[in-house]
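Quick one - inputs below.
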Amino acid sequence: MDIKNLTIISALEDLRSKKITAVDLVEACLENIRKHNQDYNVLLTVEDDDKLIKQAREADATDHSSPLSGIPIVVKDMFSTKNLRTTAASKVLENYTPKYESTVTRKLKEAGAIIIGKANQDAWAHGATGENSDFEPTRNAYDKTRVAGGSSSGSAVAVALGMCLAAIGTDTGGSIRVPASYNNLVGLKPTYGRVSRYGVVAMASSLDTMAHVTKNVTDSAHILNITAGADPYDATSIKTDPEDYLKSLTREDLKGVKIGLSPDFKMATLDKKLVKKIDESLKLFEKLGGKIIEVPLPHTPESVETYYILVPSEISSNLARYDGIRYGNGRSHFGAEAKRRIMIGTYSLSSGYYDAYYKAAQKVRTLIIKDFTSAFEHVDVIFAPVAPVLPYKIGEKVNDPLTLYLMDIYTSPVNLSGLPSLALPAGFVDDLPVGIQIIGPPLSESRLFSIGNAYEKQ
Amino acid sequence: MAKIQTLSTDEVKHVAKLANLSFDSEDLQKYLPQLSAILDFVGKLQEIDTKNIPATSQVTGLENIFREDEVDATRMLSQEDALSNAKETHNGFFKVPAIFE
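Output:
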């Protein structure tokens, strides 16, 4: 079975017409795990073979009418999976086994999905390359010597290497969009609050979004149909009922669609090698009938500074609970990046510095949000690159945390504003995948899928 | 342009205490310049005029989300489950480091 050429939708068709079985799917995933997991450091925990086959057989005994019946999914190790080790890729949680289930994984299981295993990542989701894992960095599926992107590094590579048909991740500053783009996949960061955060290890509570990576836009819409919705266990979840996202995929062209391009997002920070490719992508939107309109986003150049005050501040609070007493190992087991961020956050929140750092950043956040709100009065979506550089060689920037922070220039403003964004493949440069993103106003996922689907078909 | 040493060793030790993290002197040598560089970088935000701008703490606009003060039995952890990940327990309790002499 060639699982690499299957999507969720095509697999469901084949399962329902009995062309394949769920056991076939699971065995194909396990085979790819056997072949690649050690080399690429993709999954930290794989569920027992026996349990997986049993689940697959149970699915095969049905008519596969459940929306994800028999579909193998990988889950980033930030999500609490009951009785399956959950580490957040940190030595602090190396031996932690949750006794409860996150809402997202519960919904996936109720839809019939088979959770194959837990994906490697930057520890605590701190990173844009995957190198901050406490358990070896995940390698890029297209080039073993390069980073996979982060922090949902294992999630993206698991899909690219055929270890599953889709993977769940998180996106707080680009953490699904970057690894999706670096592995030629589609990554959705939903509107903040659209998907429940219950049961997920918290990084920055006012930015964390539960996201996913898939092979195409249709699969992405299908997954969001399962994961989206209000949750009484997450007080920040949006109350509005989600629509059926699969219904949005009707566009054949982009006539009448206004696409914003910001000179402030400019290309000053974009690696020269990427400029041509990003331009080609933009021209494709135009060819489909989209109208490119310039919109200012004057405060986005300060996004990274704003992000690296607010996020470490929230991190310092969220990681305070890890005391090695009720669960996990002690605080000396935190890795270098976690320690850096806790320190920066604690400093920013401390007496004497709170106004100059934390409060100032909260105000700039307001300005960034206003920039986007104004822009969306004139355009339907905003086009932007995802990563400013091609994937670095593993280890290249490991002593340069600040340069790695700058990788978030195009992604972080989206999280600060709570907006949805869809990362789409844009082709290859030097044989390495490149992605672009389309950003929308709050709760515009259907619009993003509709436009993304038309673009993808080209 | 020379890097401004924003942080002193004493300041780092103070923040580490607040953060409940420990650094030995070798660590301090490693982290001090990194933290200084990062704080230097993010400190640039102070140059932006935000005088009459309100602070944003959340983006959903939701307010006062409460639930009924009722026990949800499906969300209860048994005592065994709650203790299952602790390194040290005693008679159904978590064991904590002594804080009194």
